[in-house]
């Protein structure tokens, strides 16, 4: 009786506390791929306040940081870049206090090293209230680029603009003095093998008023090809298009008039419709609506704040059933329920994957991680734009497997509940005792 009880307690600890994947509070930690080592950098900046402020240009110091969602991509991968201005060089140029959520930042990130060019980035209209003549708060802007060359790609903060929409539409552009600014982040790209799409585009600016034209420059397109320039609102193409012709080197520079106020980016592609194989972008672009208010009217504005992609788990220990020495077999149990919340907005889906270590026991005995298998299940909360899909049943192992996912789509998001039946195939004459392994889940 005592021996059986000890065996049961031992097998109950099989998935132990999920160290490296679980915090002390029991929630899953951020994926390692998202924890890139970026650095805050300082650089001299020349800012020009709006003329109405009646003050001279500001020469000060900006503190900024560049973060990426993947610091070790392959050629052909798309990397999301976040440019955070930790401390702007400029401040509110007028005595009038500015309310919350009236600042729209845009800017550029400069690439160097193995791959050159610039990335346009844009941020949401989101800010804390700013006192009159008070310092502008920190803000972040995002954009993407496609990796076209292997090697170390350096990312440096570039010029940025702070647009305020309160009573009047005002801009405070800030340029890097004696650029480029110091490198804040380095992406180490590897050759993905096979054929990749080398096409790339850059925008002359990351924002404009309705009806403004933005310059679109492209490289590495098919020489002589007809190229369509088009606006994007999320994953959907808008009605704003233009056509240019690539030169003998596959380069072009064209102009796209952007009227659609929902525009979030610009793409360029060969052929009659967008394709990943013959297109480039989207490059971030935001339309700033400065439409005048008719006499006797009031413009009423509202905004929807983007959230985050996150996950929590019901607990950090899984108890598997006991098996008998000499017989072996399946030690079964259930994964602690994982709840995924996708409140980002936009077209990106998500993937929840897991991998497990070997199970270590007494006297150096072990059970291979490839002996653990799961049967995933995933449920979507009613009203969610996305529908999650359970991963395939099978071995987890150290190489990992997909637990659940939701696809890219024009509209994504929602809440999802992920479960799985677990089974550890214990060899027949495994030494008696307690065995523990660590299952790490990564959400990306």
From TrEMBL:
Gene3D superfamilies: Neocarzinostatin-like. Keywords: Signal. Residues 1-29 form the signal peptide. This is Beta-xylosidase. The keyword Signal applies. It comes from Streptomyces xanthii. InterPro entries: TAT_signal.
């Amino acid at each position: 009786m005592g021996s059986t009880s000890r065996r049961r307690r031992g097998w109950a600890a099989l998935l132990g506390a999920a160290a490296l994947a679980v915090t002390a509070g029991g929630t899953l930690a951020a994926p390692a791929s998202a924890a890139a080592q970026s650095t805050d950098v300082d650089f001299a900046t020349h800012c020009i306040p709006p003329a109405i402020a009646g003050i001279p240009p500001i020469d000060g110091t900006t503190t900024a940081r560049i973060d990426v969602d993947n610091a070790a991509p392959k050629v052909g991968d798309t990397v999301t870049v976040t440019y955070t201005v930790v401390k702007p060089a400029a401040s509110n140029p007028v005595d009038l206090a500015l309310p919350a959520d009236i600042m729209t930042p845009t800017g550029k990130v400069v690439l160097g090293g193995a791959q050159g060019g610039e990335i346009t980035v844009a941020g949401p209209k989101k800010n804390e209230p700013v006192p009159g003549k008070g310092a502008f708060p920190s803000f972040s802007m995002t954009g993407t680029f496609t990796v076209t060359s292997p090697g170390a790609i350096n990312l440096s903060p570039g010029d940025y603009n702070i647009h305020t929409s309160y009573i009047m539409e005002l801009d405070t552009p800030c340029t890097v003095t004696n650029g480029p600014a110091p490198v804040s982040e380095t992406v180490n790209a590897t050759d993905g093998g096979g054929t990749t799409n080398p096409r790339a585009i850059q925008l002359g600016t990351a924002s404009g008023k309705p009806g403004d034209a933005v310059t679109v420059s492209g490289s590495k397109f098919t020489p002589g090809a007809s190229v369509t320039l088009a606006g994007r609102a999320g994953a959907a193409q808008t009605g704003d298009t233009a056509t240019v012709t690539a030169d003998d080197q596959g380069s072009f520079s064209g102009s796209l008039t952007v009227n659609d106020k929902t525009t979030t980016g610009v793409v360029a592609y060969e052929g009659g419709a967008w394709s990943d194989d013959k297109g480039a972008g989207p490059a971030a672009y935001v339309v700033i609506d400065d439409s005048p208010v008719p006499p006797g009217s009031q413009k009423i504005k509202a905004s929807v704040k983007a959230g985050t992609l996150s996950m929590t788990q019901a607990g950090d220990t899984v108890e598997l059933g006991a098996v008998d020495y000499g017989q072996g077999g399946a030690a079964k149990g259930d994964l602690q329920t994982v709840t995924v919340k996708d409140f980002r907005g936009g077209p990106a889906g998500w993937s929840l994957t897991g991998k497990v270590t070997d199970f270590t026991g007494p006297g150096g005995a072990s059970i291979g991680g490839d002996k653990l298998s799961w049967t995933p299940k995933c449920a979507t909360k009613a009203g969610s734009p996305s529908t999650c899909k359970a991963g395939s049943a099978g071995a987890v192992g150290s190489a990992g497997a997909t637990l659940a996912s939701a696809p890219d789509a024009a509209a994504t998001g929602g809440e999802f509940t992920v479960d799985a039946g677990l089974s550890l195939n214990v060899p027949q004459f495994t030494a008696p005792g307690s065995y523990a392994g660590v299952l790490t889940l990564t959400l990306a």
